[in-house]
Amino acid sequence: MQLRPAELIINEDGSIYHLNLLPEDIATTIITVGDPDRVNQVSSYFDSIEVKKGKREFLTHTGHLNGKRISVISTGIGTDNIDIVINELDALVNIDFKTRALKKKHTSLKIVRIGTSGAIQNDIPVDSFLMSEYVMGFDGLLHFYEHDKINFPKIEDAFIAHTSWDSFKARPYVLSYSKSLGNIFKNNRIRLGFTATNTGFYGPQQRQLRLKPSQMELMEKLSTFSYEGNSLTNLEMETSGIYALSQLLGHEAVSMNCILANRANGEFSKDPVKSVDKLINFCLERLT
Hints:
Layout: E1 29-33, H1 37-43, E2 48-55, E3 58-65, E4 68-74, H2 79-94, E5 95-96, E6 101-102, E7 110-119, E8 129-137, H3 153-163, E9 173-176, H4 179-182, E10 190-197, H5 218-224, E11 226-227, E12 230-231, E13 234-236, H6 239-249, E14 252-262, E15 267-268, H7 272-287
Parallel strand pairs: 1-4, 1-7, 7-14, 8-10, 10-13
Antiparallel strand pairs: 2-3, 3-4, 5-6, 7-13, 8-9, 8-14, 11-12, 14-15
Domain Nucleoside phosphorylase: 29-269
GO molecular function, one term: uridine phosphorylase activity
Organism: Maribacter hydrothermalis
């Protein structure tokens, strides 16, 4: 099957449309960060940098650390951007840009999100680290793709009943991380969590400025939900999309969260840059 120009959009220089990258520009181990400024924060630890490219909010650095080739790319905020990034990263390694055909040999990427998040349980300290063993997505991205038995419908049904989930919203979906990739990061410093991914920062996460969220009791219902001993631990905006597309496309993915806020007790990190930097250091040590 040859992909049409409107499906696989390639720039004049041969790079993929949004990311502005050539197939040889990326490593098979990729760190994703939301903030473009965090790309420099990560790559400053590399021994060498061979690629620096950017377009829109998508900034990419590829280099080497301790003999291992690594790429770090900014995604911007939200699962809509994740849809672009993961699909285009997959295209770079699994589609022949000259023939516009799928490659016969599949390449699996290792994708590690290093991001920030807010805890919704009292016992999760600000500035601590959490790895998303499970994620529940409220974004609906998974429903736009054909999929079969990669999610957990019993947990979803229990959550819908517990929260009296509005039927006009997207059905929540639950996914798990890559266990083999996650094992690299298991450590006494790392809490395993059940992350919730929402579609926005204010109303969807029950923050009220001038607009009142439609379901003011949702935060309490999120924090009190539990299924077979698994309670929701934190809120952020990308993990469900990363896990969904990675599993559908045959890649390994794990989300590492620096807890900057605790929504249950109202605390926020006094030095968020330092806390995120500690997580970056930890992840790079484990990857290399």
